[in-house]
Amino acid sequence: MGRCGLGGQPVIETQGLCKTFRDFWRRPTVAAVRGLDLTVTAGEVFGLLGPNGSGKSTTIKMALGLLRPTAGTIRLFGFGPTDRRAKARVGYLPEVTHLHPFLTPRETLVYYASLFGLPLGEARRRAEELLEMVDLKGAAGRPVGRFSKGMARRVGLAQALVNAPDLLVLDEPTSGLDPVGCCEVKELIRLLASSGVTVLMTSHLLADMEDVCDRVAVLARGELRASGRTAELLRQPGVTRFLVDGLGAGEAESLRAELEARAGRPVCCDVPAVRLETFFMQVVSREGSARAFEVAPFLRAARQAREESGA
Amino acid sequence: MVRRIQSGSVARLRLAARQAAALTWATVTEAIQQPLALLLLLTSVLTTLLVPVFQFHRFGEDGRLARDSGLSCMLVFGLVLAAGTAGRSVAGEIASGTAAAAIGKPVSRTTFLLAKWAGVCGVVKVFWVATLAATLAAERGSARFVEQEGFTGYATDALTIALGVAGAALALGVAGAAHYFWRRRFGVAAFLGVALSQVAALAVSEVCGRWFGSRGEAACSAGCGVEGHAHGAAEGWLAYQPPLNLRVVAAAVLVLLALAVFAALATALATRLQTGPALAVCALVLLAGLAGDSFAGGAGGLSVRGLAAGVLPDVQHFWLCDALARGGRIGWPYVAEAAGYALTVCALFLTAGCLSFRGRDLG
After folding, report:
1. Which of A256, B200, B282, B329 has the fewest CB atoms within 10 Å, measured from its CB?
2. B103, A65: Cβ pair inside 8 Å?
3. B361 and A66 in contact by Cβ < 8 A?
4. Is the ipTM of this complex over 0.95?
5. Contact check, Cβ <8 Å, B104/A90
6. Alpha carbon separation from A300 to A196, A308, B206, B306 (Å, rounded)
């Protein structure tokens, strides 16, 4: 079994999960997942990492009941992956945004809300709030088939949130988004996680994963190679870094020399740089291109309800 | 305890109904936006309407020819529309991933497939209404022998045909304008508009006929080759009132039932096959079903022919346009029996489809 990161209730549990794809004649072609043991607990942001073909998306699809495991078990909220009680609590953003091309974003969101059994009035209200949140209010009447990849991705993200899910499954959530959109998605993930929503995500952008994931698991050729809390996995044991504000170059050099003399080994002294993402966001904020990101009111209400119920 | 179970079942049924309604709506909206759907509708309607115009040899059965052509268009183009729509909305969505996106929600695969079938049937029904109206108009408009004061000969109700064609053209124009000025969907507006225009054209023609008498074109005044009547004095327009042959409706309902069966077959096939192969199988089943009697007549139940006769739907139950010849009627009790047969076959095909779809990997 994998390690439980935050000590909450298990939301996703897999035991000896295997998936082998077969050809028309039922001959095995690819073993996509091999004996995967994993546990994702409530309220954590869990990242699945791995190169292409490592079994990340296959694992997610098995968790959602879209693919049948060849062997092993998978449980969502204690139910089987095809159980409606489990699916009703899940929001899913696929790797590629699959939308009905002739529907408008508003219709798309109402359609997906209806699949959760929401009354039409409530579905429309949530659709409007989500469109506002993902900044697509101005394009709400255009067919999504004419949208850019980034805009379609925003609609995809909105449809994943339409049921105010307890578990959000995001397959490459920032793929196709501009840096502002990426930041908003990460902010949203953090906000949702802080309100008790469990997030399972995959991404090739390791910096994004590092920013938001509490725990990560690394897959390669369908097998689990490493897993644990992100901070622990990335820590460099035995290395210490000091950050001092307002130090002159001369002072820094003398401190470095003193440390070297005390430690008896080389000491590295550098001027830290902000991340390119931070710099970019500062620039677009100054120009007014970035908007104030706000979570949809119904998601805030769900968050409050979750907090009140102690979930 | 029992009450809790009952309320749980009711809630589940209500949820499934809401999901099915949403899936059906999306299927219909997507399907009628496809250029192919509009093309098939226009081809069927215009072919049916123009058959009376392009008849060059008259044997006194112009109306029957128009009627049979209309019903044939209804069956053949309807079959292509049903198979194409099912292929796109099931096989296409499985391939593109929209099916996975829907089934990732709390939607059962059975609900998904049944809703897709309902959606295909919805599109086919709109097509059927348009083609039925065109068939009624075509039969009314086709040449018939008129014997009245001042004229004896063949006349065609050109006004009814013209109204049908103009209605289709107007519907396309209105759909184009709605798309340009109000950004309405052209596909939806055109598809529904053409269907509505045919019903409206028929209604206008009927009203004109009742109030003013139809203005038929006297196409023949001399040398028509028909013996036993005196020729009219001049070609031109004359007033006469050809009736609508509402006996066609029963035959058309039978064709609609056949289309529902083919929609079920295509939906079931589309869980594993792409649109082309599914259409080919449907066409084969149509041919085998129409040739059922000669193909498997008298075959034993355990023979291959007997088995084929048992498994394949007997399409001849639904193709009774010959029964309308010479004033014949198709009884509604027969239509009800055929509906029972069609529903049974649909249920069998859809059960097979659900079983096939249950084991299908998505994504």
Report:
1. B329
2. yes
3. yes
4. no
5. yes
6. 12, 12, 60, 65
Average pLDDT rounded to a whole number, residues B316-333: 88
The CATH H-level (homologous superfamily) assignment of domain A10-89+165-235+274-309 is P-loop containing nucleotide triphosphate hydrolases (3.40.50.300)
Tokens found for residue B44: 């069927």
Domain count, chain B: 1
Task: Indicate the burial class of A297 (C-beta count within 10 angstroms; 0-12, 13-18, 19 or more).
Answer: middle
Q: How far is CA B223 from the centre of its chain?
A: 39
Q: What would the pLDDT profile of B103-132 be if each residue is shown by its tens digit? A: 999 999 999 999 999 999 999 999 999 999
Q: Do residues B89 and B27 make contact, with C-beta atoms less than 8 angstroms apart?
A: yes
Where are chain A's structural domains? 10-89+165-235+274-309, 238-272
Q: How far is B111 from chain A (nearest CA, A)?
A: 11
Q: Does A213 touch chain B (CB under 8 A)?
A: no
Asked whether the predicted pLDDT for residue A7 surpasses 70, the reply is: no
B46 in any annotated domain: yes
Range of the structural domain that residue B87 is part of: 35-358
> Would the pLDDT of A24 be above 60?
yes
Q: Is A115 close to B106, i.e. CB distance below 8 A?
A: yes
Please give the mean pLDDT across all residues of chain B: 86
Residue range B271-284: mean pLDDT, rounded:
93
- pLDDT, residue B349, reads 96
